[in-house]
Each structure stands twice: as C-alpha cells, then as structure tokens.
C-alpha cells in the first residue's frame, strides 16, 4: 500500500500536464517572443500560482471537494461546460494552426479529428486513477521530445535574439486580465475538481499534489519558452485582425532550417499535450454530467435519455466546430482565451467565494451579461491596443460577485427583519364549479375541486364525522383528478401502477353533518420519480378544516421496479403543474420502502 506522500506525488504529473492545454503550451511560445522574458514571467507566474492556490484552498482538511462540487455543480453547470468547451477548442485550434497546418498542410485536420477520437476513447475506457499513470508516462516522453526539439533548434541560430522585455501598451493591458484569468481559471476546470476529489478519496494530500504539480507545470512552460527562444521570432504570422502572432514560430523555424527531426519531436510533444487535455476533459465531463443528470429533477429527462444528455461528445463536437470557425475566420488564438478573463470570470469569482464559505448570491444572467460586455471591451482593447480598456474589461465581470465580496470582507448590510406572518383567515371563500350540484367537480385554475355534503352515514357513534372519511374524500378527489387528466388509463392493461408513498393530513376543525364541503387538490411539485399532491378541505361555514399532502410513486406492473414518471402522466398533469415553482429535491429511490402493488386508490 502506497503512503499518502507517494500517493500525492503520483498525481503531480497529470495535474501539470492537464493544465498545459493550448493556452499554456502555445501562449508560452508567443509571449516570450512578443514580450521577452519579463513578459513570459508575467504570464507563467500567475498561471502556476493559480494552479497552486486551487490545490491549497481545496486541500484544507476542513473542506471536502466532493461535497463542495456536489452542492455547486448544478448552479455552476454552465460555467463548467463553457470552460471545457473553450479549453478543448483552444487545444484543437492551436494544434491545427500552429503545428499541423504549417508542417503537414490542411490534411492535418483529418489527423486531428482522429486524435480527438483516440483521446475520447481513452477518457471513456480508462478511469482517472489509471489515467494518471498513462499521463506520467506520456509526460516523460513529452519532456524528452521537447528537449530534443530544443536541442535540434539550437543547432541553427535564430534570426534575432530573444528580447529581455518588450513593454508596450498591450503588455501592460494584459497584466490584470492575466491575473484574473489565471487565478480563477482552475476553478472553472472540471478536470481539476475531479483530480482533487480523487486525490482526497485515495488518501493523498491535495496541497502536496498541486504544489508539486504547479512547480512541474512552471517547468513545462519554461521548456516551451526555451524552445521558442531557440526558434526565434521570424515565424510570426498576421491574422485577419492585423495582429502578429508568434505561436507558429517553432514550426516556421523547422521548415526554414529543414530540421525534420526537431519538427517531429516538437509535433510529438504538442500531440501529447493535446491528448492529455482531451482525454481528461472527456473523463471529467462524463463524471460530472452523469452526476448532475442523475440528480436532476427536470421532467424533460422523461423524454430524453439521461445518458444522451450527459455525453461529453456534445462538448467535443461543439469545441471542434468553434475551433474550425475561428480557424476559417483567420482569427488569433486570443479570441478563445479572452472568455476566461471576461465571460467566465464573474461566475468563477462567485464560485471561489462560495468555496471560501460565503453564502451564495450568484446571479447567472447578470454575470453572463457583464461577461459579454467585458469580452467586447477586451477585444477592442487588445486590437487597438488600449491598456485601460483591457484592464477595465477584466474588472467588469467581477461586479457580479460584489455582493459576495462584500459579505466576505464583512461589509454587507444586515438582512432585513422578516415580516411577521399574516394570521390564517378563519373563513375562506370558495367558488365551486357548480353550486347547485352536490357532486360538482372540475378545475378552478390549477386546483381540481369537488363538492360534497356529509350525512349521518359519515359520523361515528359519538356523532361527529369519522376521521377516516377525510382521507377517503381526498382519495376520491385524487381519483377524479386523475381520471380527468388521464382518461385513457386502464388498470387491466397499464404498464405501471401508481402507489401512495406517503400521506399526511393536518386536522384543523371538524365537519358537521349536512355542512357543504369543498375538497381542493393540486400538483405541488414533482421530480423524475415522484409526484407530490397537496390538498385542502374547506367548509362553507367554518372555513379551512384541514390540509395535507401525499407523494405518489410509479412501479412496473411486472417487476414492481420504481420507474421514472411515465410520459402519459407527465403530459396529462403538466398543464396543472405550478408555473416556475422549484421542483422537489431528488430522493434516493433505494431508500423508498415499496408497498404491495395496488391500484390508484391504495
């Protein structure tokens, strides 16, 4: 059995390699040639620091990464999915535009599609705990290939030496976006959430794994900067926006010097970085989305197979389409990078504050609007260039996190005192569908209403209405409600039974004989397994007599296995479901005690 120390260290290679997707791998090449070694340090430092801080915060033994993610992944599902979409898109785009296309031409596109399929297969077939060992082996090969490329490129002096520092408007404008994007970036990455959960589950230290992984990651960025320095800036290309990009400089140096061996080594290193991103992105998406879908209360999952919704292939296809669109438009990689410092930054800041213990005040629509505004400002500031616009663009999305920031720093206003609950009215005016018909029944809004009159037959030996009759009247209302909604239900041919999982009634007053009564029943909420109905019994003279609720479940008529709510029930009752009301939380069907199969009146 491995010690916690060795268990922790075994995760460091995959931590470092999985964060080296296109943004880090190729931007390290660009930034050292465009802004010199100081510019590289300004990029690499926050990048590695953000990775370290992610592990340091989640590595606190008082925090459980699995519990935190389980609580947050529903609210922040859009953030996580978009982050993976952009991460894979950057990787695919950069591999094609900066290695595949320059070295192998447009036919490289087919090879990259095949590479994505291989990586997805690997992520599907191999668990993350085993994938880390594959990544460790790939990293060793990748470092060897990178060193070989550096050595081969070093044999031919570059056209110009690498500058120490090129301080221009764009450099200063990117300081704040780099801090925002790189410090918040790991929190948006499901790959690292999954790693933190697995490290803790295996008894390792998240802090140690991410501390060593961050140092190793910084070394990998430095290796690519050295490769770029050996290649020189002569391979810059100008994109449709008129901006120069140095990402293809290594491929250009290979072609210029006829360095086939160095080119092959660099291509291998880039492929390893891409595969280790895509396979773990697939694994993390499948892991998270399966969990989210399983706990989802959406009735849409009655119609769409959950496995289809949870499939990572949708994100991979979307990322491929986004990468192809950016490539076809001849745009720079920076347009795929900016969302991490703009569009996603507000939600990411709210998530971090929530992890730190701040009560959730996340408004996804507000954060999205602020992020979109910031993205437009960032594009304008980068193209111009304008340092002030770039700086403002990185701060605008953080406005969405201001309420939580205020609470974190103890500056939030005290919560207003709760208003006193209004006393329940003694009498309630009820409009029945047909006042002249003692057996009247029908809908009034969402409520199904029946009217009845108790007689001496309904009383007990003492003279008051027997308590069981209230339950019987609610049952009658439920059956009539069901018959109105699903008139074609036939107990002899049905494929499902409807069982009463629970029933609760709160008695307020007693009914008297010959006192007109009204029973109201409505759908309170539902999820994929259960429907909860609530009811009220009113007297024409006394007002509310009692109220309660019941929960219904559905089982197969042959195996009595619990079922999702059948489609006919969803379609029949959906028009009477509460508009905009939050559904009930998912209940574990394994914890539901099954009753003997009975018809609806059970």
From TrEMBL:
One MF term in the entry's GO annotations: hydrolase activity
Transmembrane segments: 12-31, 37-58, 79-96, 108-126, 133-151, 171-187, 208-231, 266-287, 299-327, 333-353, 365-383, 389-409
SUPFAM superfamilies from the UniProt entry: Thioesterase/thiol ester dehydrase-isomerase (SSF54637)
Keyword field: Hydrolase, Membrane, Transmembrane, Transmembrane helix
Entry-linked Pfam families: 4HBT_2
Cross-referenced InterPro entries: HotDog_dom_sf (IPR029069)
Keyword DNA-binding: no
Protein name: YbgC/YbaW family acyl-CoA thioester hydrolase
């Amino acid at each position: 059995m491995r010690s916690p120390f060795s268990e922790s260290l075994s995760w460091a290679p995959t931590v470092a390699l999985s964060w080296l997707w296109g943004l880090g791998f190729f931007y390290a090449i660009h930034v050292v040639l465009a802004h010199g070694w100081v510019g590289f340090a300004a990029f690499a430092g926050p990048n590695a620091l953000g990775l370290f801080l992610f592990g340091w915060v989640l590595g606190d033994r008082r925090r459980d990464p699995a519990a935190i993610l389980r609580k947050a992944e529903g609210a922040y599902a859009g953030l996580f999915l978009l982050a993976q979409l952009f991460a894979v898109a950057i990787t695919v785009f950069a591999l094609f535009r900066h290695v595949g296309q320059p070295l192998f031409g447009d036919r490289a596109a087919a090879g990259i599609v095949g590479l994505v399929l291989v990586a997805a297969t690997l992520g599907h077939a191999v668990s993350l705990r085993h994938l880390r060992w594959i990544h460790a082996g790939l990293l060793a090969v990748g470092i060897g290939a990178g060193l070989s490329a550096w050595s081969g490129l070093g044999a031919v002096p570059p056209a110009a030496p690498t500058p120490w520092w090129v301080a221009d408007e764009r450099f200063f404008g990117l300081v704040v976006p780099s801090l925002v994007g790189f410090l918040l970036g790991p929190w948006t990455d499901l790959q690292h959430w999954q790693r933190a959960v697995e490290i803790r589950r295996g008894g390792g230290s998240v802090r140690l794994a991410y501390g060593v992984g961050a140092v190793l990651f910084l070394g990998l960025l430095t290796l690519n900067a050295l490769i770029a320095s050996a290649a020189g800036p002569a391979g810059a290309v100008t994109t449709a926006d008129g901006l120069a990009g140095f990402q293809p400089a290594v491929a250009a140096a290979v072609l210029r010097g006829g360095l086939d061996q160095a080119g092959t080594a660099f291509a291998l290193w880039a492929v390893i970085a891409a595969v280790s991103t895509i396979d773990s992105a697939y694994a993390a998406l499948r892991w998270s989305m399966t969990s989210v879908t399983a706990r989802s209360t959406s009735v849409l999952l009655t119609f769409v197979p959950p496995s289809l919704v949870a499939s990572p292939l949708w994100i991979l296809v979307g990322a491929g389409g986004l990468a192809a669109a950016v490539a076809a438009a001849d745009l720079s990689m920076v347009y795929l990078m900016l969302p991490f410092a703009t569009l996603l930054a507000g939600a990411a800041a709210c998530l971090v504050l929530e992890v730190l213990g701040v009560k959730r005040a996340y408004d996804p629509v507000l954060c999205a609007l602020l992020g979109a505004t910031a993205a437009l400002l960032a594009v304008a500031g980068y193209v111009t260039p304008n340092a002030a616009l770039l700086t403002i663009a990185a701060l605008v999305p953080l406005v969405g996190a201001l309420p939580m920031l205020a609470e974190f720093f103890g500056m939030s206003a005290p919560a207003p005192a709760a208003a006193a609950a209004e006393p329940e009215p003694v009498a309630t005016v009820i409009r029945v569908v047909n006042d002249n018909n003692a057996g009247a029944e029908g809908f009034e809004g969402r409520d199904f209403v029946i009217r009845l009159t108790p007689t001496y037959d309904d009383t007990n030996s003492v003279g008051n209405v027997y308590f069981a009759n209230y339950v019987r009247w609610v049952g009658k209302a439920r059956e009539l409600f069901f018959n109105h909604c699903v008139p074609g239900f036939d107990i002899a041919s049905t494929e499902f039974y409807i069982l009463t999982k629970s029933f609760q009634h709160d008695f307020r007053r007693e009914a008297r004989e010959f006192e007109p009564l009204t029973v109201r029943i409505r759908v309170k909420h539902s999820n994929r397994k259960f429907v909860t109905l609530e009811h009220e019994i009113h007297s024409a003279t006394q007002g509310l007599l009692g109220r309660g609720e019941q929960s219904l479940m559905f089982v197969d008529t042959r195996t009595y296995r619990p079922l999702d709510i059948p489609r006919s029930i969803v379609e029949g009752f959906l028009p009477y479901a509460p508009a905009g009301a939050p559904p009930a939380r998912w209940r574990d069907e394994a914890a539901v005690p099954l009753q003997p199969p009975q018809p609806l009146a059970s």
